């Protein structure tokens, strides 16, 4: 009975992977950074949003700094293919194409940096590092592989930074992470619920960073965010092997991986700055998914066995005059999902970021930033099989096709120095 819920829970990790960073990450923590493809983000520290990447860089601010904004995400994710399903008359092939299955989203953020004295800085942050979802069309023929998925997270953080000397600064922070998700699956060719789970939960995480200021024009940033297991608890609906609907309560541990960034910033001329980043994500932590239902015990959902992923970004900032600043960047984001483990619910692929941005200095205290990014995802093959009744080979269903996802991102941000 329990394995019938497998596809819906896997779908929790869905199409954000096609629209944003690798796996199911969100990289969009500021419009400023987005305008340069987040190249050099842990070292630049041009406004308070650096708090999302490196707490140590808060020592760059000698007065209270605030940054807040929102990023709009418009993904275009499409699946083409067929599913083969068992029937009383034998297996049949059905169209399983689905278009525009990822919904638009708004990702807000806010950051505050406050000097405590000459050496100490306090920071407060509210942002998101994981999220988005998918909705398959009604009567989707491959709904048993996952029909609806939605996950939202909010990261509320507090950080401290300490300046050791003119060159070195260290920082660390704690985060309270709230997540809520809804996932579901339907029987082939109809909307009858085969499985459904809706829940939420909290987790505690930590991060640390260092900033090395080699000169007035060159600095290096290194940051690390520890992995977290986010437990989502709530209500479940399923169907047993006799076709009877049951309800239960339970929980699912969702692994949020460790991440690290090495960033370089160099002011080449008074007008031109170059910056770059290398990001690592410990997706090899994502080995399997298991759910604990209160009345039906442990349910093994799926083996994943992802690989660690890497992201490489280059960017530049050009100051036209004291008020206007131009930004641009390009990044390559590698997928952690091995080719033989892609699914409809996690159709991850490598992607390239093309970014541009503009900053306007309204006065000595207030500035505005705008950023735009095109994410170009590769078209990849997806092959997936499952047994509708585990252990009964005659009930095997399969999907074979392709997945492709692009996205447009646009962000606006206000920065203020008190």
Count of individual beta strands:
21
Q: What's the helical proportion of residues?
A: under 10%
Q: What is the first-to-last residue Cα distance?
A: 60 Å
CATH topology: Porin
- Into which percentage range does the β-strand content fall? over 45%
Unreliable stretches (pLDDT < 50, length at least 5) are 1-19
Main sheet properties: 14 strands, antiparallel, barrel
Count of discrete structural domains: 1
Radius of gyration: 23 Å
Global geometry: elongated
The CATH homologous superfamily name equals: Outer membrane protein transport protein (OMPP1/FadL/TodX)
What strand order characterises the main sheet?
Answer: 1-3-4-6-7-8-9-12-13-16-17-18-19-21
Q: How would you sum up this structure, described in words?
A:
The protein has 418 residues and is mostly beta strands. The relative contact order is 0.22. Helices cover 4% and strands 58% of the residues. The protein has a 14-stranded antiparallel barrel. It has a single domain (2-417), classed as Porin, CATH 2.40.160. It has helices at 6-10, 16-19, 31-34, 41-44, and strands at 65-85, 92-95, 105-115, 120-127, 131-135, 148-163, 168-186, 193-213, 218-225, 228-239, 245-256, 259-267, 272-281, 288-293, 297-303, 309-319, 324-333, 351-361, 366-377, 380-387, 396-417. It starts with 5 loop residues before the first helix and ends with a strand. A hairpin with a 4-residue loop joins strand 8 (193-213) and strand 9. Residues 1-21 form the signal peptide. Pfam families: Toluene_X. It is found in: Cell outer membrane. Belongs to the OmpP1/FadL family. This is Long-chain fatty acid transporter.
